[in-house]
Amino acid sequence: MKLLIVEDDPDLRRQLVSILADKGYTVEECAEGKDAVFQGQEYDYDVAIVDLGLPGLSGMEVIRAWRQQQRDFPVLILTARGHWQDKVEGLEAGADDYLVKPFQPEELIARLNALVRRAAGHAKPQLTFGPISLDTVSRVVCLNNEEVRLTSYEYRTVEYLMLNAGKTISKTELTEHLYHQDFDRDSNVLEVFVRRLRQKLDPDQTLQPIMTVRGLGYRFNPDIKTQS
């Protein structure tokens, strides 16, 4: 998942980048409100973390600007302001959740995962399509209740496709939302991941969970339960 951190404290920003990258997020960052408005308007994100006390434009102004530009990715406010009035103002500005500093990393991750799931239309942490299930908390994928061993990149790929089941996802979108800047975008690495996933999720070639949409990308088939 592609995430934007807007935080002017360099130490906290580095900490957040480290925590979230370890959890599989593709993280981008900025320290000023104006830069945040630009990045949020120009690039697609799955979720953003915004501090309220930013230099230049405040976090509230950043969120309002995004919403006025019809940028609807979920936003988590992360700030030292704990008064209920600040929370109300933040939510009314267009934020989706609010976490007060200091915070526990586990709570931050849980809240972010929930925001991403809900934005994709999934309330529960478990995604299930026929015999294939994925737990976004434990990051485990199962086929017929048996765990499927996946690499980190393979898991990120199938999680994104399953969260967006039924939608055609281009190779460019997959690459930008899941992989870091040093990922070899000109290679066939993504095709290799998808081929391996097909072999692991559909060893008998009866389910066809990941379908290729010629010239457009890939689509996770939400109707695999109807196939024999």
From TrEMBL:
Residues 124-222 bind DNA. CDD domains: REC_OmpR_EcPhoP-like, trans_reg_C. It comes from the Bacteria. One of its GO terms (cellular component) is cytosol. The modification 4-aspartylphosphate is found at D51. One of its GO terms (biological process) is regulation of DNA-templated transcription. Pfam families: Response_reg, Trans_reg_C. InterPro entries: CheY-like_superfamily, OmpR/PhoB-type_DNA-bd, Sig_transdc_resp-reg_receiver, WalR-like, WH-like_DNA-bd_sf. Signal peptide: none annotated. One of its GO terms (molecular function) is transcription cis-regulatory region binding. Residues 2-116 form the Response regulatory domain. Residues 124-222 form the OmpR/PhoB-type domain. Keywords: DNA-binding, Phosphoprotein, Transcription, Transcription regulation, Two-component regulatory system. This is Transcriptional regulatory protein phoP. The lineage of its organism: Bacteria, Pseudomonadati, Pseudomonadota, Gammaproteobacteria, Oceanospirillales.
